[in-house]
Amino acid sequence: ILKAGAKIFPLDFMNYFGSYCDSLGISAKNMFDLGTDSEVKVFSGTHFLLNIAKRKNAVSILHAKFEKNLHPKSKLIAITNGVYRDRWLAREWLGKTSLQDIWKIKSKLRGDLIEYTNKTTGSNLDPKICTVVWARRFAAYKRPEVLISDLERLKKIAGGASPVQFIISGKVYLDESTSEKTLERIILLANTEEWKNKIAYLPDYSISVAHKLVRGADIWLNTPRRGKEACGTSGMKAGLNGTLQMTVSDGWVGEVDWKNIGWILPEQDTAPAMYDLLEKEIAPMFYNKREEWEKRMQKTMSIIEEKFTTKRMLREYIKKLYKL
User: What pLDDT score was predicted for residue 1?
Assistant: First the structure.
């Protein structure tokens, strides 16, 4: 049970619900029992909702699979999240997804992102360089430390013949000291002269900042512990804008065959695999095999449009959950 996903209380805390329970004609102990099981002697919001809800759903097929391991008695229906196209698709893409347009538009969106990032952070990123973005909550299971786990290797990739630059954004969730230290390390690194033209930390992660990131990135990097990322809609938002995926196969990503479209990272030894892909395959393709890159962008956008928008999601809710 993830702290980030549910409220968890000891039994004595349930006394605070006393008057509410009285109004329902049940005891605090009754309510506590609805939110616990024989193995975990704490009240869990997740257990409680699963026990009292008539119908319940997971937000991806893998989410349903892993949650059922924790709550085997529940009957979770898998309805994968989708993103609202009109909110996240850059207006530059409207009616223009041919190979003739795709590189020009992405270059313009990348330029917008780099201009904003340099102005905001004082960094010196280059609008013509392949740009990798890691942007999400700094929760431990998302493993924000993976990208900077081998700085010598990262420096070689960033300064190579086919250079790559990185933008990181996000906020620490709750009081995770490890993630806090990782964020501090990233900020210090991004502010050094040696790294200012290689890495930028974009603060004040918000919806408006997310719009710029998902639209301007060339690669969307996702490094969670498998089974912990319920869905991962940020990758959908980026893919909608022609951003290629480099990710551990979790959440919605597990529902797509990414061969010749994106890059799947192993959960174990994630960092070495990531560095190898960036140095030997991704960066050389970006600079030397433009048509292949454009085709991957086109396929990624098509996948999101067809399978991962709110239009499809709402149809499934109506049919599978509400049975209308």
Answer: 44
Rounded to 5 degrees, φ, ψ at 133 are -120, 130
Nearest-Å Rg of the Cα atoms of the chain is 22
Q: Which of 231, 222, 144, 129 is nearest to 184 (CA)?
A: 144
Is the overall model pTM greater than 0.70, yes or no?
yes
Q: Which of 304, 197, 201, 289 is nearest to 244 (CA)?
A: 304
State the DSSP H helix or E strand holding residue 78, giving kind and residue range, or none if neither.
strand 77-78
Angle between helices 207-216 and 99-121 (to 10 degrees): 130
Which tens digit of pLDDT belongs to each residue from 55-87? 889 999 999 999 888 777 778 899 999 999 999
Helices (H), the chain: 18-24, 28-34, 45-52, 61-70, 85-88, 99-121, 151-158, 177-190, 207-216, 233-240, 270-277, 283-288, 290-307, 310-316
In angstroms, the CA 80 to CA 62 distance is 9
242 CB neighbour count, 10 Å cutoff: 27
Highest-confidence segment of 16-20, 29-33, 69-73, 276-280: 276-280
**Is the predicted pLDDT of residue 2 greater than 80, yes or no?**
no
Residues 6+ apart with CB under 8 A from 262: 244, 245, 246, 247, 256, 296, 300
Measured distance CA(115)–CA(239) in Å, rounded? 21
- Looking at the chain, the whole-number percentage of residues with pLDDT higher than 70 is 96
Residue showing tokens 């009109």: 86
Q: Which helix (H) or strand (E) holds 130?
A: strand 130-135
- Taking a C-beta distance cutoff of 8 angstroms, is the pair 86, 278 a contact? no
CB atoms within 10 A of CB 305: 16
Pairing status of strand 219-222 against strand 130-135: parallel
Integer Cα distance of 190 and 197 in angstroms? 9
